[in-house]
Amino acid sequence: MSGAVASLPAIASPSPSGPTRLGAPASAVRLRSRSPRKHPLSLTLEKVTPDMLPGLTSRLADIVLARGGESALVAPFTHADATQLYDLPLGVGPRRCLLLVARNAAVPLRRGLAREEKGEGDGEGGEEKGEVVGSVQLHFHAAPNGWFRADVRGLIVHPHYGRRGVARRLMDAVEEEAKACKTKLLLLDTEPDSPAQSLFTSVGFTTTGIVPRYTYSVDGLLRDAALMHKELRCGNCDECGCSTEKKLQW
Where is the composition biased (Low complexity) (predicted)? Predict the structure, then answer.
């Protein structure tokens, strides 16, 4: 997760084809998996608003801890340390970011993976929405000459939901959000020769190069990183005015 993206297990075939479009934060697109796993998967994708974030951070921290060494933390670390990873300035614009979460609507919160903490909740209707099982972030650049770039960070899925297409759906969704914000170039970093790098390659990212000793691993050792990029087109760039020649006004 570093500024980086968490290493993930290989991803099985995605859920039904076509991009996932996120509307108002309260809306979500429901997808159903045909995975033969023990628990059914009814996936919803949701854009987090600032008022929703406090009730979600504990669950997101649980997922970070469940991934163990595949996090942005250096051992020893605590649940509080993991929670700080989601102290985010949500919004669209310089130095802000979007946070998308994936929920399994087939697993109510009271039976899900979240820590049982008195008084914990994630807003009205949270229990009916289902357990949070993964997330991804889109961070916008602050430099005036880099308004069209954004970093994909913190893609992480609970290990109970690995190889079920959750990460791929999150990547599809974050790309659609980037296009809606007139972002033209996505950037990320990840562990070289990892399943995560294979996933990003499969969704259209190109490896730009390898940077040696780029980030600390959870065990405190410096590791190399693969830098990756993907150029975006909205499909109607000439008419919509999102070309890189026209500066976006935040």
Answer: 1-19
Query: What's the CATH number where 209 sits?
Result: 3.40.630.30
Domain count, the chain: 1
Give the CA angle between residues 166, 168, 171 to the nearest 5°.
110
Cβ atoms of residues 167 and 44 within 8 Å:
no
The Cα–Cα gap between 189 and 54 comes to 27
Structural contact between residues 182 and 245, judged by C-beta atoms closer than 8 angstroms: no
Low-confidence winner among 55-69, 206-220, 232-246 (lowest mean pLDDT): 232-246
Using the structure block, give the residue that is written with the tokens 């980086």: 4
- Calpha distance 233→228 (Å, rounded): 17
pTM of the full structure: 0.77
Task: Note whether residue 199 is domain-resident.
Answer: yes
Query: Residue 56: left (phi > 0), alpha (psi -120 to 50), or beta?
Result: alpha
Tens digits of residue pLDDT in 201-217: 999 999 999 999 999 99
Which tokens in the block code for residue 84?
A: 């700080």
